[in-house]
Amino acid sequence: MSDDRAPHGASITMRGLVKRYGSVTAVDAIDLDARPGEFLTLLGPSGSGKTTTLNMIAGFVDVTEGELSIDGSPVTDLPPYKRDIGMVFQHYALFPHMSVAQNVEYPLRQRSIAKAQRSTMVADALTMVGLEHLARRKPKELSGGQQQRVALARAVVYNPRVLLMDEPLGALDKKLRDTLQLEIKRIHADLGTTFVYVTHDQDEALVLSDRVAVFNDGRIQQIGTPSDLYEHPNSLFVAQFVGESSVFRGVLDGDRVHVGGRSLTATRGTLPDTRDVAVVVRPERIDIHPGVAEPSAANAIRGRVIQHIYFGNARKVEVRLDDGSMVLVRESAGATLAPVHADDDVWLTFRAEDASVLALDGPSVPHPTPVTSTN
Asked: Which pTM was predicted?
């Protein structure tokens, strides 16, 4: 892109942001900041409020209550075209009668930028997304991935300080999504623009983001770096939505968790304010031991193999515990894999430092005492 582009994006501040549709509250009093130049992802299931939040930032949806500002300036009452925001939609929204170059040029014409400058800016944007050789083609002559690149070039060509992206890769196949994720990450690093990205794809969020805000039922459940969310979820919802989790449901007694006649140890530094809890472990942190002999590990629990699935780079083993609940073990294909078959009796073990104790009905309450137990 040309050297006159702003090196950093804008900050976005939301305080007590609410959106109601009649009696339905789509977004419920959220507080959220996007830092200048960061890649912030809004992650959650359908109907969780993430897209409504994005549309309030864009100005496409009116704010019911609360404050919304960009770089400290209130924008709640500003129309979309005055917010200096770029937008990329899932379904591209390209003009079919225009060429690639004309599509990218369109927002520049709307801003009355001189023709000579427009040509340079369009060329720079198409080069950034690797489509300079397709400038004369029509959208119908392009693949889905190429069309999405055109939409991205059109959104960044006028150098907005904020770029909003609503499920931009949702219509593409997995291999193409993986490729475009890396391209979007590179473009973000090159531009320094503030990206706010909506997705329901947990892997996409972990790959792309500086921080992730996890939405559910119109509220933010947790916000943090991908590592924070994966390693230290504050609720069972976050643990299960962000990556896979094996959940051992049990009862908290003092600082011990009783699960199916066993006592398990977790030291992740939170203690729920409820007796009904779950010990949560990522499947790749669990070891599987065939046979009936009990391992010497502190955290050992018995089960029976239901099935195992080979994925090329990993093996997943589904195990039913003695209490009837199901958990998952994931092993890297590079590891020495013990042979297991359906109906085999096995023991599962994991380290206390790889486990969290979370309430079954909500976020955990911070507590200075780690959860410990003995068998």
From this structure: 0.88
